[in-house]
């Protein structure tokens, strides 16, 4: 039985092709055995190798579509966006901006985007107004394994997860007027 598992994995690695894809295999395994253990890739199987194949195919989809819609051909210094609630724009902590961002500025117009971000509704409260931060970071500052998994599990959010949230050049901070 163990030999069969080794053969199945070897065939899958061969079919996945290339160093980057083997890294995708490891990212899939890391998530399925860790913080993303409730992935829908387990819905139709109890076999780890089958679940890994499911995750890798999903990751490949995200990597095949161009940035900023998905994760293909990310520029060296990608533009990213984040929503925050502030009483005043001067309250923004520029040294700790948060690690969860998104890449597509039009994502906020998609039905369902705010379903997972209901803490931002309504857009104006006694605690402040929702602002959209536009920033630029290094491609190397993107935590790709978490970004791939967040895209897979929370696809409407179009998430980019950062390694270091203080390593973002702020380009603009503007109030977001929506549903007020």
Largest sheet: 4 strands, antiparallel
Count of distinct structural domains: 2
- Overall residue-averaged pLDDT value: 88
> Which class best fits the helix and strand makeup?
alpha+beta
In whole angstroms, the N-to-C terminal distance is 61 Å
Outline the low-pLDDT stretches: none
Shape: elongated
Strand content: 15-25%
Helix and strand element order: HHHEEEEHEE
Number of helices: 4
Helical proportion, percent range: 25-40%
Number of strands: 6
Radius of gyration: 19 Å
Account of the protein in words:
The chain has 180 residues and is an alpha+beta fold. It folds into two domains: 2-64, no CATH class; 79-175. The chain has helices spanning 2-16, 18-32, 48-64, 144-153, and strands at 79-86, 100-102, 124-125, 128-136, 159-161, 169-175. The model has no long low-confidence stretch (mean pLDDT 88).
How do the helices and strands line up, and which of them pair or pack?
Layout lengths: L1 H15 L1 H15 L15 H17 L14 E8 L13 E3 L21 E2 L2 E9 L7 H10 L5 E3 L7 E7 L5
Antiparallel strand pairs: 1-4, 2-5, 3-4, 4-6
Helix pairs in contact: 2-3, 3-4
Give a nutshell description of this structure.
By secondary structure, this protein is α+β, with helices and mostly antiparallel strands. It contains four helices and six strands.
